């Protein structure tokens, strides 16, 4: 959506910690309605970028604009309330129901505040999202009894209840089996239609965990961008192999991505003996 307003703008961003450069020369723009994937190996800097996008981290240098406000010149708590964040490591310890967990998205807290009462409109929004995410039958089920897939969908509902302009998904498929993962990805795909102006960024290590609705990608390695832009231009064999520093072949089928190691020809007969002698 080239004419849509920018939701995220990072301009020549660097981030350093304890004398170590974590990010260097990172620049990209996310616009309303775009769905980005943030890809790269462990230690590449993905979590740091997500922290910048969520207004939890300040850059060492460069500029970060989130929802039109520059980090360092805005009241962060107010800005964070406009951002939905989905993290499967949600630190809830009490046995809240699905409905109550989604309600904490209204207050922006982990637990419901004491003596706080939601309005009728807030309860209606919660119930509508619980239904949208396919959890109506589990509305009163308590957190410890939920499957990982049900928790993931409840956390998406929690993130959406405050009607955010930006949704950040931090490895949402972590710990899911194949069926639960596919259910969750279908749920994320549906947001393209139910929330057409919502921008999102999803962090993952695995191409098969990219929703079919992904429009753009940012591929990072050693804190620097390998490629950024429309997903078909970024998620290529050449770029992915360079980022992960391994011969990886990438493909797409029915809107979903796959990746596997490049198969090398096996040596047989005299060639194998010769190779063995050389080693």
Automatic annotation (TrEMBL):
<dbReference type="InterPro" id="IPR003593">
    <property type="entry name" value="AAA+_ATPase"/>
</dbReference>
<keyword id="KW-0547">Nucleotide-binding</keyword>
<dbReference type="InterPro" id="IPR027417">
    <property type="entry name" value="P-loop_NTPase"/>
</dbReference>
<dbReference type="GO" id="GO:0005524">
    <property type="term" value="F:ATP binding"/>
</dbReference>
<dbReference type="Pfam" id="PF00005">
    <property type="entry name" value="ABC_tran"/>
</dbReference>
<feature type="domain" description="ABC transporter">
    <location>
        <begin position="8"/>
        <end position="247"/>
    </location>
</feature>
<dbReference type="GO" id="GO:0016887">
    <property type="term" value="F:ATP hydrolysis activity"/>
</dbReference>
<keyword id="KW-0067">ATP-binding</keyword>
<dbReference type="InterPro" id="IPR003439">
    <property type="entry name" value="ABC_transporter-like_ATP-bd"/>
</dbReference>
<protein>
    <submittedName>
        <fullName>ATP-binding cassette domain-containing protein</fullName>
    </submittedName>
</protein>
